[in-house]
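Dear Dr. H.,

I hope your travels went smoothly. While you were away I took the liberty of generating a structure for the chain from your last submission, since the lab meeting agenda had it listed for discussion. I wanted you to have the full record in hand beforehand rather than looking at slides cold. The sequence, exactly as received, is reproduced here:
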Amino acid sequence: MGTFEIFVLIMTVMVILVEAYTSRDLAKARERLAEEETEGKRVRGQLKVLQFERAPIAKQLNDLEKTLNSQNHQILAMQTQLGEVAEENVKLKESSGKK
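The corresponding predicted structure, in token form, is as follows:
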């Protein structure tokens, strides 16, 4: 066997080794990708469940906020009425004090 044949044989062995190593790396990468996709699906599923569970709570909060706003308007109206009554009281006291 000549030098060239030995060189070709060594190169062939190296190419086979590189292909085997690359194939193994690709298989591991595919496996990791599959695991990550599975994990991603699991997380997306949990997110959907949380969003579904959160919806009634968000609606309840919105309803409570509307009730609170309504009550705030009522309180402001009552404060205005109270101020008017207080002013009338002061005027009545002043007018009764002048007599």
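Two observations you may find useful: Residues 5 and 11 are 10 Å apart (CA to CA). The chain has a mean pLDDT of 92.

With kind regards,
E. W.
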